[in-house]
Amino acid sequence: MRRGIAASALVAALAVSLAACGSSGSGSDSANGGKADSGPVTITYWDTSNATNEAPNYQALVKKFEAANPNITVKFVNVPFDQAQNKLQTAMGASGAPDVFRSEVGWTSAFAKAGYLEPLDGTPAAADVSAFQASLIQQAKYDGKLYGMPLVTDTLGLMYNKALFTKAGITTPPKTWDELKADAAQLKEKAGVDGFWMRAADGYYAMPFLYGEGTNMVDAAGKKITINSPEAAKAVETYKSMFTAPGTVKADVTTDSYAHMMDAFNSGKVAAIIQGPWEITNVYKGSAFSDKTNLGIAAVPAGSAGKAGAPTGGHNVSVYAGSDAAHKAAGEKLAAFLTSAESQTFLAQKNSTLPTRSDAYTADVKADPGIAGFQAILPVAQPRPELPEYSSLFGSIGTNLGKIVQGQSSTQAGLDATAVDYAKLLPGFAK
Amino acid sequence: MAVAVQGAPKERSREREERPGLVQRLKLSYSKYWYAYAMVAPVVIVLGVLVGYPLVNGLYLTLTDANSLNSARQIGVKHIPASYHFIGLHNYADVLWGPGSYDRFWSHFVWTIAWTVICVTVTFALGLGLALLMNQKLRGRGLYRMLLILPWAVPTFVTVFSWRLMLADGGAVNALLGSVGLPEPSWLADPLAQKAAAILVNTWVGVPFMMVSLLGGLQAIPGELYEAAEMDGASPWQRFVNVTMPGLRSVSSTVLLLGVIWTFNQFVVLFVLFGNNAPDTQILVTWAYYLGFGQQPRDYAQSATYGVLLLSILIVFTTFYRRWLARNEEASR
């Protein structure tokens, strides 16, 4: 009898702890599985755009979508961009993943390789693939399959304050890094402001320097790590000088450096930065750019190889492979809607971001000086190699660039350390 | 074996009595104390699930090349099995003496030790000083105590965020330093200043605990001891060394041990203050986090290896510390 009590107490304890474990893991999204197109479906959409400036416009689009598709309810979730990759990675490998999401172009191939994304070829989402820029479609592919529909595209350019440039007697934006340094010194001297602020310790913003020397972090086609090549070292030397030359702002590696840089530019305390179109709406809000035409946009300066280049960025809309058929179908519809010409025109006008399909560049869209400026420099944008690990490469180079610009390690030593990390990430690559 | 038993001291001879076998003993104690087993069972099970399983799994991961691309994952209805391999002790070898191991491990290791020693010393010294002050009979003692405990009551991340604002280039700290003509280091960017800032903030966060614990210890020392010492003509310093310090021994040995363990694994202060942007200021814990969660793809195996190394370091430290304490205890008797 006594043993019986003990045993039942044990069983009860077990049951309680098991129940506690079980309840947390049960997702509810897959409740109405299997029913394609019939009955109401609720899908989750993760938006990664800027929560104050951009997200309300995406939300407005989603509202329109719901009105057009009364059977589909969309749960709109805004996830801060800097946490989104991590969150997506966690959610898609476990539970609670969104059915549709805005994915940075660099994440797409890695997510596709991990099996998280649903191929979109032949689905409603990819109905008018031909209207999109071919290079952007190429960029959304992995292993020959399409894993995302290009939503917005961007590249880095030189954003400058025209009034300050005029004040310093500079009439044309600089074409090379050396010219930029000369201009920065002149701006400091004649206009009394810092001439140039370069984002430190961030590999993405260092890409124009690498392209300017005709190199990249890796040679994906030749399976070779090129980050510690002499060309890359030269590029990083130039990069380093952008923090020490007269009129440039010294390297800021604090957690808030991005905000510091944008505040300084928007309020007219610094005359030029390297930045992408996603900040245009923010810039327009700044005191220095209440007159929108004061914002100058030029291609990034060229390096000693004489060629300017900037990374192609942007976002795709992707559908989660783990959803059931009904959710996938609804998700594909949403993806098609968000990337339609009409939606892209709407987003471009509201957010000043660049559409990915030619029929979205209406006269009104082109009238926006920010869009016109960036559209003009898009040809300078360099496509990204089809390498799932490519976006992971920015981690190590960012850390080591921080050390290099702070003088904690020499350029070559920092790049060699990065190459060691890359060798681990890319086992098949030669050093 | 038999010789050892013969030479054993007398009190141990009790153990030589006929003892039942292990199974027998278990059965006996079970029928006698079955309720104790039943009551302990839930705790054992929960601990096993929450601590034991992750620990064993973590140990296993260190012997593989698992990362976020080759681990098993459940993608909604689709299951992708794990494809990582058993690679033996390679991770340990790679972390400890692989290429770039100085930058990846040893530099963080040295800094972690320095960080722990400096932080614990400073917090303990300050905490003791404040506790001694608070132990005096002075007006408004309750108010002072409350004010000094306040940093502890505020959630740590709030404290650290406030410090991040104050330590920023144009923040309150530098404004103050500038107004009296002192240099204004960039606390959050310059590697050396970063370390100083980290120690400063961690001290701010850690002192209240030290103070409260030591104050409790001080109040437990009977006043007669001080009176007796005074009668014998002991100076204040002699009273401090010969009465206060021995009286505090049990409290201080505990708070020092806790302080070391907490500081060694202090994550919030460094992570919130610098994020992943300060490679030189990362201690082993924050670095392990970076490897496992802060980069793409996530390197589970190496992160787990760091975890196991951290655990081993702390186990070794605790063992030696306890032995040292026991020896001191013995000597002071």
Q: What is the CA-atom radius of gyration of chain A, in angstroms?
A: 24 Å
How much helicity do the residues of chain A have? 40-55%
- Tally of extended strands of chain B? 2
Strand content of chain A: 15-25%
Profile the largest sheet of chain B. Answer: 2 strands, antiparallel
User: What is the 3D form of chain B?
Assistant: globular
- Residues in β-strands, percent of chain B: under 5%
Which class best fits the helix and strand makeup of chain A? alpha/beta
Distance between the termini of chain B: 32 Å
Specify the biggest β-sheet of chain A. Answer: 6 strands, mixed
Q: Tell me which oligomeric state these chains represent.
A: heterodimer
Overall outline of chain A: globular
Q: Helix content range of the residues of chain B, please?
A: over 70%
Number of strands of chain A: 14
Task: Give the count of helical stretches of chain A.
Answer: 17
Order of helices and strands of chain B: HHEEHHHHHHHHHHH
Helix tally of chain B? 13
Q: Could you give the distance between the termini of chain A? A: 73 Å
| Structural category of chain B | mainly alpha
Task: Identify the biggest protein-protein contact and residues per side.
Answer: A-B, 52 and 45 residues
Low-confidence stretches of chain A: 1-37
